[in-house]
Every structure is written in structure tokens, then in C-alpha cells.
């Protein structure tokens, strides 16, 4: 009744934060949901015509306010294209080659559209509405070509005409029946998207956007590893979480679109790697550019980075190089990714590099909670004797420094994790019915936050740290942080021979049971507690540095040990080992 | 993974709770669940949890930790990131989250050094609109918080608003809270009544006009109606009952007050509550009821709480009576009192006991003492009459010790440790008295008789 008069008054009620005003008989505003009367009175003319109130309400109808603002029509794949574009821009800003955006990722995306029969095809998928969009694109190019004149950006930005035209076309095709569906979803095909029958191939999803990025990075042999990529994503250097909020104003997100674009967690390393492989196979990609010794992804180079980050002496690198050679994991054929080959294998480059360091540390210091301490005591003695010159690396000292640093950082990381904000400012709702509820909730949360922020005081506005692929930084200059980079390992070099042999017989193999690496998960939870403390710490350290699961690193170490000692060959006569669970 | 196992086990335990009820028809089915040992060694995949949920969970556990350590500042900061849980995709989570936020937020605001009562009020307002299901509870809690801060009027307003609140159908739980709200509101009415009443009395009787009386009566009516409704429900209503009885009593509603108290004490639907009997006793005593009735009330209290301090009164009441039965009972009451450590060193009780024992012996009813002693003879010697105790008692109070020694002597004979110790200690000082005592014991102690 009163909505006519109260419509202009959009302040939320201070008691219940709802905008649901009505006017009482005295002409005062009151909240319909909690009956809170406020100071505001109805406007003067209203009061004058109070006696005619009935006529007033009869004469005017309400404008349709509930109608959703539909925005322009768009397809889900366009949404993903937009997100990919943003992600590529962010990656370029992080220092990758500009080719990534305009050439590599663009081509991979086109190829995906073609393979999934969404565009660049003569046989478009069986949805009438799509035809117009597709026919628009077909004219550009019909296959994956590197010298295509339609660049990545032209698809989204610099060629607004083309996009406009396609939209117009679709509008003609869609006609009136679209009214009903588009309220349920903002995009044209959002409600149909999840039906698997609709897509024969790989269904585009948010994690898959990261797989696209990784694929492009790998193709270009960029220095951003998958672990780095995921870390940048969680630090929000690369848009992923709530990426849809950067959509242009006209692209509205409703209903099923939310399920497609909203992100509830950051995918794991393995998930993205698996998705990447699926995608590469789906796209039938050729053998990737070779990873040689000069590439960042080669274990030799990755190890240098990790050694620096872990504050280990540089001289360890000699050992690592020898190990890499012995295990054969530095070879081009091993490292280069070839999705379609029969024995396609995905190398976890950075995890493997960390595992090499772990193996090297085990070779040098045994890490059985006994020998490393004895050795570091001996090193201390040696250092005492010749106080000048290069010091011998002391494991004990390194351990204390790193332990403190790791504990600090882990605490900080957990702190950050607890404060991570997942939800975006933009209210999302699945149907019109929810709209008012969602808006109210948003307002409520906002006001609650305001209250508590005021109470907490305005301190610590976190400045965004500069993105870096280093988590720890050990400057030689600083005093309180000991740096071990220059320390020597001479004292541990028992064997003078060039051939690597186990430093002593006490080397122990991490996995308790030797088994088929393909079938066995190697690590069961209960095994963890049998690990020596220092080995456990080193695993913790590196898994924290890489941001991967602890067990994954352990698995990698086990696999390297299999290679190093060629265990399967050595133990063959004893027969097969079955999958075991302890 | 460990959490997974714990959950599984918890689930299993839950299942077994409901199990037997259903299978009670004929022969109950054997219920076997997976042994724990197997569960432990299974490689249970941790349930897939979204990053959002994980964040919120760590946030909550950190808030709890901060609260436990009274780090209100940290808790407040963390709270700002916890509010996002209200946007969880499932409504069930949202509902439970609003309750958690209400409880934690209120606690933080109440303890945070920089927060004022306004903050708590505005927070409560917001929570009422978010968690409609907890509306009444929030109102009640907020009203109590206001009361604690001396804001009577605001609390009253809050309560009366909550009383008139209607939203959909009331569940049983809501009804319960509503009764509480009503009760508290009436209690505040009573409070006003008491204040006005005492003011009125200070002014003196001469100035009382009919208008004032009417006003007082209105308060009385409001309070009594609410209190009556609240008190009718089974539960522990001590302050409410007292106020209600006071009110009724003031307006000469003796019979009504008595029924209320009787109902409170004897209605089997109410949980057993010793205070109910205490109130009833005090009320009856105030109105000079016959000793017989008083004894009846106290006898029940004696069964509920044998160590209650009213037992001394019970004892004296019993002694006043001429009946033999009552005197025997009085002896039992004293013995029971001394069973409890609170009365262990009570001088008065020991004095009463020896006095009565002597009297009983003089009347030739020493079998009564024997009867009481029988169940206690295996633990009282160590409890009351050890050598150590004798030394201690003697140090503290000689006459008390000698009285106690006499009891010990009568009960256990002159050879008992306690008596011997006291005898030796006090021999020099009061030789004659002790000798007399020893003679008495020789003649009358229980072991000699049997």
C-alpha cells in the first residue's frame, strides 16, 4: 500500500537492517518486519492528501521492480575466455613472456573450442542458439594455426564490433522463449552447461583454467612452476577466486552460472596436473619443446633455487648434479612432456628437485636422528681447529636456524589461512526469491564486520607483498639470520672417487616396503611416525617451501630411491611385492 | 584421516544408542559394529572439504583458542573474517553458524575492554534479525546481560518485547524459553513492586491514598500472573517461587501460597529440589504452624539432604515432642549429621550428641545408640576417633575433646584409642572430671553391655 511513498527511502532499518518501510496512520515511517518506528515522517504532500490516501493508492500502479536486470547475453565459454584472458594478463605482469597471452594460451584455447566443437568447426554442437556465434567465428580460422591474424585480445576487446554482431545474431535466434530461461541463469547456456550430454569432450571448469595456464607455461618453458602458479593463485596475484567479479558490467551472473564460476577451494597440485594431462591429450598436443640443461625446469637449476631458499651450502650442488646424472632424471627425454606418447609421464619438476636434495642430504648426513648430530659435532671440532677460512657445514646449527624460521612461517601461514576471505563483495543469488534475503545478509555481514573492525582498531592493513617465487630469503648481510651458503662440505667427502656410492652403509630407504611404484601409494599414515625426526623435518621444510602435500614429497623421494639403487632389479628374485597396508 | 576415524567411531556410537529401542519387539538383534582396531588401520580418505570450509574451520578454532586465553583483541580481529560463514552455500551451515556467531560474538563483546554496553545491544539486534530461530534466546540472554549491568528498565523493555514476539509456529523449545522470559519479566515487575512498596512504607501510613494502592495492586497483578504461569512448569524456580510467595503473602493469600509451595515441593513432575522443602518449612514456620507439620516437612528434607543445617532445628523440634519415637529419631539425626565432613568438627553437634546420649542411657534406651552405631562402627573409629584427631582436637579445644572422648568411650569402651589419648593428655589438668567420666563409661559403654 505504502510502497509508493516509501520507495524512495532506501535506508536499512537500524534494528533489523531490512528495507521494508511502511507508513503508519500518523504518517510515520515504520519497519514492516520489526515494527520499529523511526523519526522520519512521510513527505509533506502525502500528509496533505492523507484523507485521499485510498484514491492515491488506487490510481498508480507499481513499477515492475522485481524484474532482474538481465544485462547482455553471453555464453559460459565466453566467461571462461574472459577469465583466461585476465589470468594470462596477470602471468605476463608477473614476468612471463608476452607470447604467453597472445600466442600460446590463445591458440590452446582456440584449439579447445574447436575440439569441443564450440567454435572453429563445421559441425557445431547440437544447440540451435550456438550456431550464430559459431558461424561468426568460423570465418576467422578453421584450424589451429600459429600465424592466425586474429589475436587473443581481438576476441575480447579490441574487436568490439565482432562481438556485438554475434550478440545481435543470437538475440534474433533466441527470440521470446529465452525470457524464462535467462532469469534462471545469466548466461545463455548456463542452465544446460552441466548436463554431460551437452558436452562430449572436456567440460570447462574453473580448475581447468589453471590447467590451461600451466600448459601454456610448460610449453614456453617459463620459470613459473605449477607450485608457484598455485601459490600465486592463493595469494590472489592471479585471478581465480571470484574471478567473475571482473566481468564487464553487462555480463550478469545468476543461478547455475554461480555453480560454474564460483570457487570454493584452491585445487591441489595433483588435481591440476591431472587436468593438464587430460587437456593435453584431449587437444592432441604434440611433443613439447625440449627441456634441456639450460631450462629452468631442469633439476640442476631448480635445485640451485631450492638450495638457496633452504639456506643450504652451494657446494651441495656438485653432489646433486652427480645424483641427477646417476638417476637419469636430467635427460631430455625424461623431462620433456609428450602427452600422446605411449608412456606419457608428467614430471613434477619442482617436487622432484626437492626430492633430489632430500636424497642428497640423506646420503651426506644419513638423517637417522643419530649420525647427523655426530657429524655436526665433528664439524664443530674442525671449525674450532681452523677458525679462519671456509667453515664446514654444521647440520645442527642449520637445523636450529631453519626450525625456528619454519615454525615462524608456518604460524604466519596458518594465521593468514584463517583470515582468508573467500566471498566476494558482489551479492550472488540463485533466484529472484533469494534476492532480498541475500542483499539483507550482505548488509548484515557488512555491518557486523564494521562493528568488529572498529572494536579491533584500525591497525594492520596488510600491504600486498611483491610476488616472488621465493618464500624464504636469506640475505648474507643480515645479522640475526645465519647464512650457510658459503659453507663447505669437504669434511663429508669420504670417498675421493668420482663415482657416487652411498656415503656409508647406513643409508636407509624411506619406504619400508619395496613395491610396484605404479600401484602402491607407498605412504600410509601410520608409517609417518616411524620416520626419524630430522628426515621428517626436512620433508616438512620442503613441502612448506613448495606448498605441496607432505606425502607427495615423500613419495617422490621413494621413487628416486628406487631409481638410485635400482631396487626393482636388485630384489627381483624375491618375487613380487603386493600392495600392502600396514 | 584421524578425524575421519573419530567421526566414524562417533557415528557408530550414535547408532548403537538408538538401536535397542527399535529391536525391542521380540528378541533383540545382535548389534555388531566394526571393531575399532580395523577402523584405525583403514586408509580412510579424508572427506573432501572445500578450502572455504577449511578456512572457516581454522578461523573458528583460532577464535576459540584466543578466547580461552582471554585474547579478546585477537578474537575480535579473527571474528571479522569469520562472518563469511554466513554466506555458506548450505542453509544448515548458515543456521548453525548464526548461533555460533551469536554466542561467540556476545562473549567477545562482553569481555572486550573497549566495548560498551551499546555494542552488545546493537550486536544483539543484528543477531536477532540473522538468527530468527534463536530470537527468544538472544532476547533473554541480552536482558540478563542488561540486568547484570544494572539496566533494569532496558532489560524490562527487552523482555516485554520478546514476550509479544510472534514468528510462525512456536516450537516446544521456544515455548520453554518464552516461559523463562515471562518469568524474568514478572520477576522485574516484582522488583518494582518491592521498591515501591518499601518507599510507600517509608512515607508512613497516613499518606497512602487509593490511587497509590491501585498502582501497587497493578504491579502485583502483573507480577503474580506471570510468575504463576512460569512456576507451573516443572523446573527449578527458586527465586521466582520466593518472589511469588512473598507477593501472595503480602496480599493475605496464605492458602494460595501454601498450595504453590506444596506443589513445588511435592509435585512429582518437578525435579527433586531440597530448597523447595526449605522454603515450605520457612513459610510454615513464619506462620506459626504446628510442630507436627514442621516435623513432617523436615523429615522429607532429612531424607533428601541429611547434612542440611536445618537438621539442627529438626533435632530440637523432635526433642520438644514428648513422643519416644521422636526422641529416637532425633538421635539418628545427630548421628547422620556427623557422617558429613562439614559437621565433623562442629562443637555444638558433639555437645548435643553427648547430652542426648546420656539422657537416652538414663532412660534405659541404650539399644537406640547401639542401633545407630552398628552401621558406623567400621568407619567412624578411623574417621572421628583416630589418635591423630585426638591430639588435634585436644590442642584446639579441651572441653570439646573431652566431650568427644566421652562419646568415643560410650561407643567403643574405655580402651579405645581416642579416649585413652585424651585421658592421658588431660589427666594432669582435670583428673577428677576424667576419672568420673571413666567411671561412667565403665558402667554404660556399649561393649560392656553386649
Automatic annotation (TrEMBL), chain A:
The keyword Membrane applies. One of its GO terms (molecular function) is RNA polymerase I core promoter sequence-specific DNA binding. GO terms for biological process: nucleolar large rRNA transcription by RNA polymerase I. It holds the Pfam family Rrn7_cyclin_N. InterPro entries: Rrn7_cyclin_C (IPR048538), Rrn7_cyclin_N (IPR048540), TAF1B/Rrn7 (IPR033599), TF_Rrn7_Zf (IPR021752). Residues 80-248 form the Rrn7/TAF1B N-terminal cyclin domain. The chain crosses the membrane at residues 201-220. Residues 265-452 form the Rrn7/TAF1B C-terminal cyclin domain. One of its GO terms (cellular component) is RNA polymerase transcription factor SL1 complex. Residues 8-39 form the RRN7-type domain. It is found in: Nucleus, Nucleolus. Belongs to the RRN7/TAF1B family. PANTHER family: TATA BOX-BINDING PROTEIN-ASSOCIATED FACTOR RNA POLYMERASE I SUBUNIT B (PTHR31576:SF2). This is TATA box-binding protein-associated factor RNA polymerase I subunit B. It comes from Chiloscyllium punctatum.
From TrEMBL, chain B:
It comes from the Eukaryota. GO terms for cellular component: RNA polymerase I transcription regulator complex. This is TATA box-binding protein-associated factor RNA polymerase I subunit A. GO terms for biological process: transcription by RNA polymerase I. InterPro entries: SL1/TIF-IB_Component, TAF1A.
